[in-house]
Amino acid sequence: MTHYIYLVRHGEHQDAEHGVDDGPLSPRGRRQAELIADRLSGLALDAIWHSPLLRAAETARAIAERLPAVPAQPSALLFDCVPTGMTEDTPAVFEPFFGSVTEAEIEAGRAQMGDAVSEFLVRKPGDAHEVLITHNFVISWFVREVIEAPDWRWMTLNQAHCGLTVIAQKQGRPWSLVAHNDLGHLPFELRTGMPDLLPV
Ligand SMILES: O=C(O)[C@@H](CO)OP(=O)(O)O
């Protein structure tokens, strides 16, 4: 009996490269969403949860269209956020990142991630398969939580648009990381959203 959670970053959104905060998926983002939807379509899903932002909602819709019995539901716990601020053990190289982030945003992010972990990383009875469509930092936080890395380590994890990360808990065992940022369903030209191109 295993509880699987499939963590998916939303597809690329329109004008993301011009710094636009949210919006509909770009043509490339729609293609990414269709391909992750194809990849997940053979699963007996119990739930599809998504961030309320449009790029995540549209990605979730592509998945839900292939699985009409499973409604896609918004969850504010999956909203984009900054999970922690600069702490004593955070390497100084990350300091510039926090220049434009307020204390209030960090407090809100910390509280949201605490609630998200309490809500989603709980054992469901029997076999369970849930998809969470969310944002880069949120997935980084879930992965960090599962591998029990120091808090600041979320900053060293990145996921591509519609990359697939899988975490799982077998009955009586701790959560484990099954796959991270698997891009096998995406052709090279659709592997967007990483800070650097993969060297291979
Ligand atoms: O802005 C970003 O880089 C990330 C942060 O989580 O968000 P998104 O996945 O929405 O692009």
TrEMBL record:
SUPFAM superfamilies: Phosphoglycerate mutase-like. It comes from Microbacterium resistens. InterPro entries: His_Pase_superF_clade-1 (IPR013078), His_PPase_superfam (IPR029033), Mito_Ser/Thr_phosphatase (IPR051021). This is Phosphoglycerate mutase. It comes from the Bacteria. Its EC number is 5.4.2.12. Gene3D superfamilies: Phosphoglycerate mutase-like. CDD domains: HP_PGM_like (cd07067). One of its GO terms (molecular function) is phosphoglycerate mutase activity. Keywords: Hydrolase, Isomerase. It is an enzyme of class 5 (isomerase).
